[in-house]
Amino acid sequence: MRLKTKLTLGIGFLFLVIVVFGVFGIISIHRLKGDADRVLKNNYETLVYNNNMLKAMEHLRSDSLALRLFENNLLLQEKNITEPGEKDGTILVRQYFEQLRINRNDSVAQAGIRQSIQLINDLNQEAILHKNQSARDSAESAATWMTIIFTILALIAFTLVLNFPGVISNPIRQLSAGISAIANKNYSRRIHLSQKDEFGDLANAFNIMAEKLDEYEHSNLARIKFEKSRIEAVINNMRDAIIGFDEKRQVLFLNSVAESLIGLREKDVIGKYAPDLALRNDLMRTLLQDEPRAELEIFADGKKSYFVNERIEVRNEEERIGDVIVLRNITPFHELDEAKTNFIATVSHELKTPISSIKMSARLLDDARVGNMNKEQQELLHSIKDDADRLLKITSELLNMSQVETGNIQLKIQAAAAEDIIQHAVQAVQFQAQQKQMIIKTDIAPALPGLMADMEKTSWVLINFLTNAIRYAPEASVIEVTASRKNEKVSIAVRDHGIGIDEKYLTRIFDRYYKVPGNYEKSGTGLGLAISREFIEAQGGNIWVESRIGEGSRFGFDFPAIA
Ligand code: ADP
Predict the structure, then answer these.
(1) Helix axes 528-538, 455-472, angle to 10 degrees
(2) Whose CA is nearest to atom 4 of ligand 1?
(3) What's residue 450's pLDDT?
(4) Domain residues of the chain, as ranges?
(5) What is the pTM of this model?
(6) Which CATH class is domain 411-560?
(7) Quick check: CB of 516 below 6 Å from ligand 1?
(8) Which CATH class for the 335-404 domain?
(9) Which residue lies with its CA nearest to atom 11 of ligand 1?
């Protein structure tokens, strides 16, 4: 039943109760009033008329008006005959009255009148008693009926009072509980109402909504699961090793490459505290180090691979929610690099012989015994010599570099004096310096201890410093070569007053093939300083630079002093 119908019925019932009670009460009161009126009119008035007639009869002899008064009351009585037998009595009164009219002293007529009036009075008094009883009966029956009706209606109303609020409040309670459940994302919640009213419709609509939300939630979940597996597939198919950690450094995921590299199975690491794993796994320990290593050489699956370790901090808005370590596989680049180094080594080695013979031929041509040359020919020969020298320098640098790259540096470490190294180097560049009218000053600290070094390689480095100084300093400037003691070390340095190097490039000039941008000498290879570093570091030394743009540079290296 619809709620509207229920409310209409409930209120309608109350209206009916009021109408029934009202109508019944009014009818009962009217009936009682009718009874009272009838008693008054039918019987009481008769008693009054009869009384008046008796009084008038007392005064018939002395009062002439009494006769008329008697007759008036008799006329009224004649019109108010209501009880059975009353008519006969009244006719008798009329007959006796007619006799009295003729003879006022007729005692027989007077006695007859009294007797008849008495008879009428008795009849009416009896009727009054009877009607009083019947009025009382009707009042009692009305009271009984009203009590019955009241009891029935009260019972119905009581039942309504007990049940009707529940009809409205119960579904509302269920609905609000359902809405709270939905608000708490419990989309499986349903409302079961058996009633077929507006609340039933509301519950149905609610259930449909919950179902849709449930479907949406599940389809979202399915989509998220699909996306997750797709990302997992992407991560797993990568050639780089990837390991993810949460903000508490617990392992969240790792791909198969990472699995085989660190030698641990996924199920043994997921959810584990990474520093705990690092205790028994070297690679993990290396990866967790704060300073990522430039390059990692890893033996896995029976072959050597190269990786660079990159740590990415994962942030959500401002909050750090974890880290991802990517071990980028650079083995193919390594292989290419090796091929390149081998190629350079081969080419530069092969070039050395023809260049040397070009130099030799040029020197022979320069000999007057071979023949005289004019000035133009001499200039051409000069430039052939210069270019051959430069070519030889480049090829020897390339060869050195390829030796460095393949780890083939052959060192002949022996005790040496700084002074010897300096003299050898200065001598080698003296000619070049003179061509630019430059002066090379040497300053060797007294009682300098010796050092353990490969003479040839160390001199090569110093020559490279000096060649650069000559190249990047103006003509007729001074180059200072110093050898000094720095704590337990012997330090050899070359200072020039040339163009200097911008501070931002200082960290890079020792990198292979690096040339300061916009720098003026195009002919260099960018390899000299890189080879120098390798040579010095291979001997356990330390290479350094100090430079200020426009003021000049100071390149040097330190070796442990012989105790
Ligand atoms: P290159 O053969 O090009 O000189 P190097 O490795 O010897 O290669 O030097 C690397 C770069 O460092 C040079 O290209 C040059 O720009 C810069 N450089 C080296 N020495 C000096 C110096 N004394 N003064 C200024 N710049 C220098």
Answers:
(1) 150
(2) 524
(3) 92
(4) 3-171, 239-329, 335-404, 411-560
(5) 0.53
(6) alpha beta
(7) yes
(8) mainly alpha
(9) 515
